[in-house]
């Protein structure tokens, strides 16, 4: 029974992580399909995936600032 519980737990955690990575991937695909200087990736939490999304948002902000200054 312990093996079944362990397998269920691993499957659940895997789905949570994979689901969040898939969501981040979808947001990045959406971003590449258009240029919107105001677009930001919605918050995805405070873990590594969330920090990656935040880093992308900082990059988008820097690009938007560069674009504004270039005008």
Beta-strand percentage range: under 5%
Measure the end-to-end span: 65 Å
* Class from secondary-structure proportions: mainly alpha
Order of helices and strands: HH
Tell me about this structure.
The chain is built from two helices and no strands. The N and C termini lie far apart (65 Å). The protein is elongated. The protein is mostly helical. The mean pLDDT is 86. The longest helix is centred in the N-terminal third of the chain and has 31 residues, at 2-32. It has helices at 2-32, 48-70.
Structure at a glance:
The chain is built from 2 helices and no strands. It has 71 residues and is an all-alpha fold.
Question: What descriptors fit this protein?
Answer:
71 residues; mainly alpha; single chain
């Amino acid at each position: 029974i312990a093996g079944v519980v362990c397998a269920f737990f691993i499957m659940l955690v895997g789905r949570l992580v994979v689901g969040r990575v898939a969501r981040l991937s979808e947001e990045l695909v959406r971003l590449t399909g258009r240029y919107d200087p105001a677009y930001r990736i919605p918050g995805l939490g405070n873990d590594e995936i969330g920090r990656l999304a935040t880093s992308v948002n900082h990059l988008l902000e820097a690009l938007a600032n560069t674009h504004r200054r270039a005008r």
